[in-house]
Description:
two-stranded parallel sheet, 34% helix, 13% strand
Amino acid sequence: MSVAEMFEPLTLLHGPPMRNRFMMAPLVNQQSGHDGSASTFDQDWIRQLAWGGYALIQTGATYVEAGGIAYERQLGIQSDAHVAGLTQMATSIREGGALSAVQLHHAGHRADPGLGGIPAPASSLTVPGVRALTTEQVERIRDSFIAAARRAELAGFNGVSVHGAFGWILSEFMSPLLNDRRDKYGGSTENRARLTVEVIEGIRRVCGPDFQIGLRMSVERYGLRLEELREIAANILDRELIDYLDLALWDSAQIVQEGTFRGQTMLSVFTSLPRRGVRVGTAGKIMSAQRVGQLLDEGCDFVLIGRAGILRRDFPLQVKQHPRYESPKTPVTEEYLLANGLSERFIKHLRRWPYFVRSS
């Protein structure tokens, strides 16, 4: 796909269109207040992204219940007290010309007790000494996602993206390894996907007709089965329950190593599905204009920019101005990140990945 085509608008089932094919990935950065409130560092980060040329900008994982927290200094949306800070973020994104979304998150069995988190496993076998959630507790968490979406709408966001990846609670429930329940949320593939579907349906019910809903899915680790996830995705696409599906791949070029789709690209397993009006995109080591074009040619409607957006907040504008643009090579120094506008808190978070940032 040509650079000019990358900057053509993309309609969504609800609300305004994306102005181009670049979405900012939801990046955890651990720079919020200890109470989950949006900090001055959050606001500065969002302002930088807002003028970077993206079509849609998501917040990082934003917890919907106090007990669902996963990280220190994680952004929160579990309280009306968070709305003011989120409103400022949404306003900055709108002023920059992009659409906005809060990524809704609950850590499930991976909630951190040291931060006030309450591990919430689907199975009694997952966390030693912690019993599985009751049906009523599952429904309470479902309703917390829905209430959080309503707060996002009140804050002025165009929509939300539901975090169903990486073994967090919705992904956990989809996994036959982590979900051995015998109620309506366990057993069959349909039942294990029920929590995710009910969250999405509930958000659509309580939010306005132009409110946009995305879903992030991953296909690796935590006992997830590719064939089942394809079946779940096919149902969601066919019913047009969401506006966009975000495939959270570690590498957008990765090949399926076993099973029914062995030898195919992971991406093609999903882009080959009938999608009706739903848009499908991927993340995963997208570091150049050339790679963006390849993925759009391979069937993606949009791409999600993560690492490349950390290195240059204006990645889309760089691509537009330089059709052969390539991101700086990694690892980069901490000085480079500071000089390019990242906070010390964000850099502290990034230090856990030495392939991305090296000590000075």
